[in-house]
Design goal:
Length: about 210
């Protein structure tokens, strides 16, 4: 006749895949050890999974915190660049052949002779104007920019241009009435086939109280 304790041990072995309590003394010491090792291994796997999730969460948080700082530093770096540059000049200051030197250092290159003051403060609702005079042969072309974008005239902004002699051009921008949106960094660019010249000036508004 079969011992009832053997049947209990058999049932306990069938339930080994589930989370059970430590087997009774009816089972052998080897089986108890195997059950304990299995539970310990499961706990270790769960702990490793939790640690991995925590590490990934911390990495995402750090990435989100450092991204705005990097973008801000890049923005400040771009803001410190000078507006007036000479295009085509090598680092050494000398060109490889006389033809290049004669072309880029041509006396007929575009050059700005007169421009508005660098800093200008205007009163809201009043009229403001910017002036730029350039010289070159062939006659240079003047283009206006505001905060890096080319300016086009509209109802409240007018661009006037006059030719002077054979090699000069005069350009003027008038804004009437001036609003808060007109504040910013304006740039006058004169260019012809030989060179480019730029002048920049900053504007800000003030409020007049009667």
């Amino acid at each position: 006749m079969r011992d009832p304790s053997d049947a209990n041990c058999g049932k306990l072995a069938e339930l080994s895949g589930r989370r059970t309590t430590v087997p009774n003394s009816c089972c052998s010491v080897a089986e108890q050890t195997r059950f304990a090792q299995q539970r310990l291994s499961e706990r270790q796997h769960r702990m490793q999974a939790k640690c991995l999730l925590i590490s990934l969460s911390l990495a995402m948080v750090l990435l989100m915190l450092t991204a705005p700082v990097i973008e801000a530093r890049r923005g400040r770096g771009r803001g410190r660049t000078k507006s007036r540059v000479q295009i085509g000049l090598p680092i050494t200051g000398k060109y490889r052949d006389p033809e290049s030197d004669q072309y880029y250092n041509n006396n007929n290159g575009a050059k700005i002779l007169q421009a508005s003051h660098f800093d200008l403060e205007y009163v809201l609702g009043h009229k403001i104007a910017f002036l730029c005079v350039a010289k070159g042969n062939p006659r240079p072309h003047i283009t206006w920019y505001k905060d890096g974008a080319e300016i086009y005239q509209h109802l409240y902004m007018h661009v006037h241009e006059w030719t002077i002699g054979d090699d000069r051009v005069k350009s003027k921008i008038e804004i009437d009435p001036a609003t808060q949106m007109d504040a910013g960094l304006y740039e006058c660019t004169a260019d012809n086939m030989y060179s480019i010249d730029r002048r920049s000036f900053k504007t800000d508004f003030s409020i007049a109280f009667d």
